[in-house]
Amino acid sequence: MLLPVLLTLASLVFITIYWNVSYTGSQLFMKVRADLGVAQGVILEQLHDQEQVISQVQSAWQLKSLLSAQDSHNVAINRLLEKSREDLGLDFLRMLTLEQVMREPRLAKLMPVEGERARSGIQVLGKPELADLGPVLARRAEMPILSTPMSATTTGGMESRGMVMRSLLKVKATSGEVVGYLDGGVLLNRNQTLVDSIRDLLYAPGTLPQGALGTVTLFLDSVRISTNVPGSREGEQRAIGSLVSDQVRMKVLDKGQVWIDRAFVYDDWYISAYAPLYDVDGKRIGMLYTGFTEAPFIHNYLLNILELGSILMVVLSLSGLAVYKGATGLLQPLERIHAVVRAMQEGKERRIGNLGLDPDNELSQLGRQFDRMLDLLQQRNREIKAAAEQLEFKVEERTRSLKMRTRELKENLKLLEETRAQMVTNEKLVALGELTAGIAHEINNPTAVILGNMELMKFELGDRAEAVEEEIELVLQQVQRIKAIIQSLLQYARPGDFDAPLERQPINPIVEEMRVLVRHSIEKRAIDVALDPQASAEVVVNRQQLLQVLINLVINASHAMEERGQIRVSTRDWLDDQGQVKGVKMAVSDDGCGIDPELLPRIFDPFFTTRKTGTGLGLALSYGIIRRFGGQIEVDSTPGVGTTFTISLPKEAPSEEAETQSISLRGLHG
Prior knowledge:
Elements: H1 3-58, H2 61-68, H3 74-88, E1 92-96, H4 98-103, H5 105-108, E2 118-125, H6 127-133, H7 135-141, E3 143-144, E4 158-159, E5 162-172, E6 178-187, H8 192-202, E7 214-220, E8 223-227, H9 246-254, E9 259-265, E10 268-278, E11 284-293, H10 295-345, H11 362-461, H12 469-493, E12 503-506, H13 508-522, E13 527-533, E14 538-541, H14 543-560, E15 565-575, E16 581-590, H15 618-628, E17 632-638, E18 642-650, E19 664-666
Parallel strand pairs: 13-15, 17-19
Antiparallel strand pairs: 1-6, 2-5, 3-4, 5-6, 7-8, 7-11, 9-10, 10-11, 12-14, 15-16, 16-18, 17-18
Helix pairs in contact: 1-10, 6-7, 11-12, 13-14, 14-15
């Protein structure tokens, strides 16, 4: 019952806090954005005012009278300009001719065009240019560059350039002829008057919370040249020469965007606004900053949240106490009902009984109805339990019968597939045996004649046979290859004619002998054969025939690999479901090109090969040998990953009536 009150009050707390933070935060960013706009307007107004005060000098009677004199006195003009500069608060003011203006490229940028009286703007001048305006200005512009915690590290150095607000006005004689130009302006480096006047305008007393500090800064590139941000180092009243943070520099100076967000200013977090400053050429030369410290506002946030939380906690406590007192009479019967429900869930037989309330009370009626419902439920449970026991017995009986029939069906299907595969293989062998016998008879006689005549030819030619010895050897090699193919074909087609005795023996020595025999064949390819012999059981095999199978698989693996790699040959005991030793499993794995899925079902067919020099009988013979041992051979291949041939040999020799093991092909889909 207290939960809705708690949720409502908690929601009010979070909504109020969210609204307070979100609204106040947006107001702060709106204020600092407005402050930045006012500061930009003040700088533009300052440029306009500068034009106005210099125009007063241009239109002064003393200057006009000196210029209209028969012999102009430069000394008197310069004295008048110096006095006017001091009276008007300018840092420089001088009289130039058109030729002098055109000799200075930066000054020429401010040349008023036809119809203009004057032109003003902000420029960055180097140390020599400042020295031409006045040696004092060059010394005043210099300042050491100081790094800040959020700025790029600096190894020191001096900033000797100066940022000036400059105006160039035409000076006309009484006849209306332009006789020169007035060049005047203010150096902004260390100019406290401008930034302090903007600060006083923006952050007058009462505009910020107590303890908050409003500041204004002018940047030359990323260096503070004029600011009222207080310095933290000894002897520093203002953070002159310090660098802006990297985050602000990249957004404002590099990208030319306005920054309205919180930022780390020198040594504290401020609600800040930065805008790029452009010179008369439209080039970004610095930044204008306005902002105020963040900590007093956060303090006010936390204080408001604490006050609001305290008030809501008091309201929550009073509301909870009132709800609890009003619900006591309702909760006790409900607790008793709940206790009965929990006991029933635990399997105990309990009833609500008399609640001590008026018989017409809703809870009293509910208790009676609930007890009757429990009685009916108990009776139904007994009936359901009896029916469930009977149903479970029938389901178990039907399931057992279904499992038995399913197992018989699977065994029959498996037997059918194996029989069909055996029939196809036997038909192939019969047809191949008949064909091979005829081919062997027809080919062996010509090959014997060819061999005899070639030997006779070499004998008759004598020393002259050296000229064609390479051709003779090639013919002999090809004839021997024909005889080897016929021999392999006969062995595959009539394995009974080539039966070798089977003996019980360990597998690991045969595997190690295989590596010795194939070492010479694959060492030119920089391929290594790694052994992992872990089998301990003995099996009934013919050593030479098993060596033939292993050598064939390793040679095939070497052809499937590139120039370098490793072939892994492992053995392990073959265990049945009860953990008893059933035989031995051998695996030959490579990291070669793999076998395409569409070619995988054909790899054990006679004469099927993907190599130009192969006969296609190696794997067919290997399959026949392993089948004679009563074992099976499986292949698992993934194109581009590699191939694994697994040979499973039983530890007991197969009988003559044993069924031929089928080939299991896995990995047909990669």
